[in-house]
Give the backbone structure.
Amino acid sequence: MKTISIQSGLALVALLMATPLVAEEEPRLLAWEDLLPEGTPEFVIDHSQPMDQVQRLFDDYQAASSGVVDELNNQNVKIPGFVVPLDINGSAVSSFLLVPYFGACIHLPPPPPNQIVYVTFEEPVELESIWEPFWVTGTMITETHRSNVGEASYTLRGEILEIYEY
Amino acid sequence: MNRLGLTLSLAARSLANRRLTATLTVLSIAVSVALVVGVEQVRTEAKRGFTNTISGADLIVGARSGQLNLLLYSVFRIGDPTNNVSFDNYQRIAARDDVAWTIPISLGDSHRGFRVMGTTDAYFQHYRFADDRALTFADGAPFKWVTDAVIGADVAAALGYSTGDPIVVSHGLGATSFQQHTELPFTVSGVLQRTGTPVDRTVHVSLAGIEAVHNGWARTPAARLPVVAADAEQDALKPTSITAFVVGMESRIAIFGLQRAVNEFTGEPLLAIIPGVALQELWRLVGVAETALFAVSAFVVVGGLIGLLTTLLTSLAERRREMAVLRAVGAGPGLVFALLIVEAWLLALIAGVVGVGVIHGAMWFARPFILERFGLYLAGGGPGWFDTTVVIVVAAAAAILGALPAWRAYRYSLADGLTVRT
């Protein structure tokens, strides 16, 4: 009787020690800069220039900054951002665009393609408000397709959506 | 029998002895619970109804106004468009590489109070509602001729139309428009399956059909000449403008790019909105009213619970003998205390279950009527976690409130003994 309890006790200890190794890897925390491939030029609006000039510069910048960081493919990541809902059911969303700053859908200029993450959830998740930032955890998929739309992009298979605590 | 069982059966029997007051108390709380649950149910269903109206659309483009305004008139047929989009500019944007498909929408006419919407075949191919469901025909087919019309399920039901029936479109909105386009009657070519969205209350015709009607109307003020040849091929009547259009993108990542291009469009002031974002804006707007509704129904529950407290307290005086008898047969003062708590809890629990049951039953029965009258489909699906929570909270609150009469009964039972001084 006694030996059994000691054995099971040992087993328990072993299990407890093993748990951190077996448990899923912590998601990698990403900042938006991490999505830019190396050598991406920084875009600075020069307000002394005429507006259409700035516009052209910006278009060039957009075209130049469409690369993705390939090593992020299939990685478990966690990234903060603002939600631009696309498919909604009641107050739940099943797909949305995650963007680095609020109002990307209204104000100009919009973020370049590699600063937008297309997030899909298999099960729709409750979205309380689009005026708050969220953490999204899931698997990152990078795609590089040079179609006439001509952009590389990030897609995130979302697992957890949680409100961002400052 | 254990203690809890004993207390329960004592409470139940005591209540059964005071059937009338107990039933009335249960009723008053049941009504308040039904109100809370009903309000919540209608609120969520209305929200679902709204979000179910459009699905899979990436952008909506119309004349520059506000995003809510554009969303409401283009998708929900609420309010009126501020201006039109020229057809040339529509075609220019529709031809862009990043645009997968577009659905033009032309509003402005009505048929016996139902909106007439001009569109193209793209509508039947690409329009999606409620989680990517496509429009399907209950009868007939999409319009083939200029004077063909496809009607929604509500239109068919309310006006008794079926495939092959002639209809007359009138200018402007309203149940009785006197300026009718009688020179160009339309023929119903198809009836759509019910969707539970504003589509059900819409008469769809081709863009050319809208144009035909207006050409005729403009050229013959007295509506005399049989102008535009009916059954003319659609190409013959190119529209000059449309109200708005829905855009599906090749790649959703490119939404912002197109949105910016549309908003920056130099040809005419246009506005592109993301439906999901505009809907969130709408929720924020109606959120205040929702909170107010919920607060009102919560206060009704509080009223019901205070009623319960009153009934229990007033009943105490006449039940002092009952308590005294219980004490005499060996019940401790603790049991008397527990008895009153259990009584309050039991009443509220029964009331909660009755209230939830009644409201769900009523909604199930009233569903066809509400759908017909208000266009609101109560999917129902039986009581959910919200209803369970309400019942639990109300029962718990009643048990806590029950402590007051319980404490008084406890005091009485200690002081009175068998000699009740009244």
